[in-house]
Design brief:
Elements (H helix, E strand, L loop, with lengths): L6 H22 L2 H4 L6 H13 L2 H11 L42 H6 L14 E5 L23 E4 L10 E5 L14 E5 L18 E3 L33
Parallel strand pairs: 1-2, 1-3, 3-4, 4-5
Length: 248
C-alpha cells in the first residue's frame, strides 16, 4: 500500500509552496510576466546584471526609467444624480413653466421628470399628496404610507389602497385596467393609467375620456416607464467595450 500524506504534512507542504512562490515573486518581480508588455524573464535578469556593470550616470538613467516612474493621476469620477447609486446631485427649484410632457419637452424627459422640483415646493411645509392605488398594492412592491418617498427629493406624498379615499385622493393610479369608483370624481383629481405591456396584452379602457395621464413604455407617454433605463453619467464614456469568447 503506497504511503499516505497526513493532513498535517499536506498543510505544511502547501504553506511551503506558498512561501517559496512569494519569495521568488518578490525577488525577481514576477509581475513583469503578467503584464502583456512584459519582457521575458531572461531579459529581466540581463537588465539587472547590466545595471550592476554600468557606469554611475548610466545606472541613474536606468533607475529613472525602471523604478522612479510617476504614478498615474487619478481622475475624480463625475457626480451622479440622486436616483443613481451614490448619487449626490439633487434637483433645485425650477423657474418658469415646466417642460415635462410630450408636447413641451424635446430632451430626455425621464431625467427631466426625476430632476424636477416645483418652484413653490416648501419641503415638510408643503401639503401632502395622496396617491390611491386603486388595484391594490399587489405588483407594486410598496407599502402603505410615505416610506416609498423617503429618498425622493419630493417626499410629500403618501400611498394608500383604501378605495374609500377615492373621493379626496389627489391622484388615482390604475394598473392595467380602469375601474369606475362609485363616488363622484373631484374636479382636480388626476387619473393615471399604468401599462407595462403593450395594448395587445392589456384590457381596453371602457370609460371614455377618463384618463388624464398615461404611464407606459412608450416615449410619448406622459410619464415614461420603460422596463429599464440606460443613462450615461460620465461625459467621457460613450461606449462600453465588450469582449466575446466563442468555443469552437
Amino acid at each position: 500500500m503506497p504511503p499516505r500524506l497526513s493532513a498535517r504534512k499536506f498543510v505544511l507542504a502547501f504553506l511551503v509552496v506558498i512561501g517559496v512562490t512569494v519569495l521568488v515573486g518578490t525577488k525577481y518581480n514576477l509581475s513583469h510576466l503578467v503584464n502583456k508588455s512584459a519582457q521575458p524573464l531572461v531579459q529581466v535578469f540581463k537588465n539587472e546584471l547590466g545595471a550592476q556593470t554600468q557606469r554611475p550616470e548610466e545606472q541613474e538613467e536606468f533607475l529613472d526609467n525602471n523604478i522612479f516612474e510617476e504614478p498615474e493621476k487619478t481622475v475624480k469620477p463625475p457626480e451622479r444624480p440622486w436616483f443613481l447609486p451614490d448619487g449626490t446631485i439633487y434637483p433645485t427649484k425650477s423657474k418658469g413653466p415646466p417642460r415635462l410632457f410630450p408636447d413641451q419637452a424635446d430632451g430626455d424627459r425621464i431625467y427631466d421628470q426625476l430632476m424636477y422640483m416645483p418652484d413653490d415646493y416648501q419641503g415638510y411645509d408643503s401639503p401632502e399628496k395622496t396617491i390611491l392605488l386603486y388595484n391594490g398594492f399587489s405588483g407594486w412592491g410598496q407599502k402603505k404610507g410615505s416610506a416609498a418617498f423617503h429618498e425622493c427629493p419630493i417626499s410629500r406624498c403618501t400611498l394608500t389602497a383604501d378605495r374609500s379615499r377615492a373621493s379626496d385622493a389627489d391622484a388615482i393610479l390604475f394598473k392595467d385596467r380602469v375601474v369606475q369608483p362609485p363616488v363622484d370624481r373631484p374636479m382636480k383629481q388626476v387619473w393615471i393609467l399604468y401599462h407595462l405591456e403593450c395594448p395587445y396584452h392589456t384590457q381596453s379602457v371602457k370609460i371614455p375620456d377618463s384618463i388624464n395621464w398615461t404611464s407606459t413604455y412608450r416615449r410619448d407617454s406622459d410619464i415614461v416607464a420603460p422596463y429599464e433605463y440606460w443613462m450615461y453619467y460620465d461625459p467621457e464614456c460613450k461606449a462600453l467595450c465588450c469582449y466575446y469568447y466563442f468555443l469552437l
